[in-house]
Write a structure and sequence with these properties.
Helix content is 74%, strand content 3%. By secondary structure, the chain is mainly alpha-helical.
Length: 313
């Protein structure tokens, strides 16, 4: 294969392999992923609209949930449309700048979600363990501050990661064994010493994954202790129901993300890695609104009220 160029020329073209298979299966997968993308967008938009229009849902917990839905919409938008083009047009070519941009926004949104899930866990900790201090602790100024930390922290850390990755020289085939530009398949194409880029990426991955995860686990240890101290079973069930949905989302998100990123980035990108990637890039954003809505009485009531109001218009 010919060399793809060097960084100074800026003439890179990568090729996303996607899911190589027969043409009929490609078309079938196109419709599956298209419907998933459509449902994910509509579900999360519905959650945002419901929280925005319902006075009863103007609480910190739902403020963060609306941001999670907003984040998930962009999370799938960064990766799925290009995958749909690969399925439909059989064109996996992507320029160097487009690839780095996709990588940056994908990592930024993922890092932001890590911190945002931790903020949501802290919100549940204060609500269950310090209920008398909840109004003062989780006031709107605090909510906006925690939200800003989530977004700014995620985008700044990702900028550092992508900066080092983008300054690596690539001289192999240019074929990325993935359906979007991700760290591991990109670094597998490097032909220069890129130990610094690997080290920076690995340390920042641990920083943005393990610290929020540790804080989330600590929050839930206190939450569990407080719930077990409640004398009645109905009280324990009511308290646990307020954080059960978030706990399920956290388990799904971190179980897949840690598998992919809490290891050296140049680890071989295998086919099953792509299947795991589908889980947290497509399936998780699709499931998040369902998990929160099905187990949340206030959200279900707001959906019913909005539906009845719409039917009378």
């Amino acid at each position: 294969m010919e060399e793809k160029g060097n960084l100074s020329t800026g003439v890179y073209n990568f090729y996303l392999l996607g899911f190589p298979t027969s043409r009929p299966i490609q078309i079938f997968l196109f419709f599956i992923f298209f419907l998933s993308y459509l449902l994910t967008t509509l579900e999360n938009l519905l959650v945002i609209v419901i929280i925005w229009t319902s006075p009863k849902l103007r609480k910190p917990m739902y403020f963060f949930l609306a941001q999670l839905s907003f984040l998930d919409i962009w999370y799938v938008t960064v990766t799925v449309p290009k995958l749909l083009a690969i399925f439909l047009l059989e064109n996996g070519t992507i320029s160097f700048m487009a690839c780095m941009s996709q990588l940056y926004f994908f990592l930024s949104l993922g890092c932001t979600e890590c911190v945002l899930l931790t903020v949501m866990a802290f919100d549940r900790y204060v609500a269950i363990c310090r209920p008398l201090h909840y109004i003062n602790t989780m006031n709107w100024d605090s909510c906006f501050l925690l939200s800003s930390i989530s977004w700014i922290g995620g985008f700044v850390i990702s900028l550092i990661k992508v900066y080092y990755i983008s300054h690596v020289t690539f001289c192999n085939s240019g074929i990325l064994n993935h359906f979007y530009c991700d760290i591991s398949p990109i670094l597998n194409l490097a032909c220069t010493d890129m130990r610094i880029a690997e080290f920076v990426d690995f340390i920042l991955a641990l920083l943005i994954l393990l610290i929020p995860l540790l804080l989330t686990v600590i929050s839930y240890c206190f939450i569990l202790a407080s719930i077990l101290a409640i004398p009645t079973s109905s009280g324990r069930q009511k308290a646990f129901s307020t954080c059960a949905s978030h706990l399920v989302v956290v388990v799904i998100f971190y179980s897949t993300t840690l598998f992919m990123y809490a290891r050296p980035s140049r680890a071989q990108s295998l086919s099953y890695n792509k299947l795991v990637s589908v889980m947290y890039t497509v399936i998780t954003p699709l499931l998040n609104p369902i998990i929160y809505c099905l187990r949340n009485r206030e959200v279900k009531e707001a959906i019913l009220k909005l539906t009845l109001k719409s039917s009378f218009i």
